[in-house]
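WARN retry 2 of 3 for item q-0093 after timeout on previous attempt; input resubmitted unchanged.
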Amino acid sequence: MPFTYNRTVRFQDTDAAGVVYFANVLAVCHEAYEESLAASGINLKAFFSNREAALPVIHATVDFYRPMFAGDRLIIQLTPKQIAGDEFEIAYQVFSGEVAGRSAAKALTKHVCIDAATRTRKQLSEDLIQWLRQFES
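OK item q-0093 returned
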């Protein structure tokens, strides 16, 4: 079952036209990712300061279907999927609360697990595999 994250669009998220700046959609999706990790019991401070492993984003895409404005209530549904022993992707659906059921955007990020010192690929941790299983469809 997907993880659901709720967020209000802030003025700082918007561009000069008053709509959410395209790159900020990925920032909001990353917030949802962090919240899903915490909800599964992962200590965020330890996770993001891990000196043994890192999880860089190796690919990201966003498709927009309707504008999002300051004050809009967003619902972000996150569904992770393991691709390989050292790689996973996260699909995001972004809904604007003012029109239930209509997607405002969708995004996808792909991540790889690497050894933080050597920058070579390594297997995903057991904690991360449990997170994947908890929220994948």
